[in-house]
Design goal:
By secondary structure, this protein is of the alpha/beta class. It is built from 11 helices and 10 strands. The strands form 2 sheets. The chain has an 8-stranded mixed β-sheet, sandwiched between helices. Strand 9, helix 10 and strand 10 form a beta-alpha-beta unit. The longest helix has 19 residues. The chain is globular, with a radius of gyration of 19 Å. The termini are far apart.
């Protein structure tokens, strides 16, 4: 009986490992393929960045006078699409920033593969094109999954990124997965790592980290672990009484000014 049980466990482990990428992607990525209407773009002061027919890379803000402090590229969480994050335009454009909402491959109307390698390569190209078109300074802002993308892009775009804002980040995806699924051999089927600690070990710019106190999806101790591991200039905020999906409702203009002033201080 014991031998049969162990054989069944071995089969389950094999199946998990063999189907790893599909299983991982079904658990990690929740893309929407919807694209916004023209009325939506007008109402929220954004337009396509790139070719709207399908090769676009995201959306850029059109708020007058909102470009004097530089460009903030936003990498969003794992669900929906970039146009769902217009609240960043509403928060950051009044502070003097051009806001670029980056669209991942496989999200919105973009073609491409889901996954870390695809997202990070695309993010590095987005950074390159943004610097080429808009000049510097350029800052990256990541939220949840987007923190992993932003951290990898910052680590791979040496000298191009002037500051980094990470909201509800993890330290490594593996650490979160092991905590969520302690009964699964997650290392066997987790092909994406999003190891922000390793990706930022040589980053020289300022890093602002914001964790949500009551986050039950990426508990705040993961943000704290990342903060402790970072070697450079850094500062952490904890958003009181906030969860993973409602933190934005609990911060206001003064909070956004404080956090952007911190990462942008060296640019003044």
């Amino acid at each position: 009986m014991k031998k049969i049980f162990l054989n069944r466990i071995a089969i389950v482990f094999f199946l998990l490992a063999f189907s790893g990428c599909n299983l991982q992607n079904s658990m990690l990525y929740y893309p929407s393929t919807d694209k916004p209407s023209r009325d939506f773009l007008t109402a929220y002061h954004i337009h396509y960045w790139g070719d709207a027919s399908g090769d676009y890379r995201g959306y850029v803000s059109t708020v007058p006078g909102s470009t004097q402090k530089g460009t903030i590229i936003v990498f969003h969480g794992n669900a929906g699409a970039a146009a769902d994050r217009v609240y960043y335009v509403e928060a950051l454009a009044p502070l003097g920033y051009r806001v670029l909402l980056a669209e991942y491959p496989g999200y919105g109307g973009r073609k491409g593969e889901l996954g870390e390698a695809s997202f990070v390569k695309d993010a590095e190209e987005t950074v390159r094109l943004a610097v080429e078109e808009f000049g510097k300074p350029v800052f990256l802002l990541g939220e949840s999954l987007g923190c992993g993308v932003a951290a990898a892009a910052a680590g791979g775009s040496a000298g191009q990124i002037n500051g980094l804002i990470l909201i509800t980040p993890w330290d490594t995806l593996l650490a979160v997965a092991k905590e969520k699924f302690p009964w699964l051999p997650v290392r066997l089927f987790l092909t994406d790592t999003y190891d922000s600690i390793d990706n930022l070990k040589a980053y020289k710019g300022r890093i602002a980290i914001a964790g949500a106190e009551r986050d039950d999806i990426i508990p705040v101790h993961h943000a704290q672990e990342l903060f402790r591991a970072l070697p450079g200039e850094k500062k952490m905020w904890t958003i009181k009484a906030a969860g993973h999906n409602d933190w934005f409702e609990l911060v206001g203009p003064s909070w956004w000014k404080e956090i952007t002033d911190y990462v942008g201080k060296s640019e003044k």
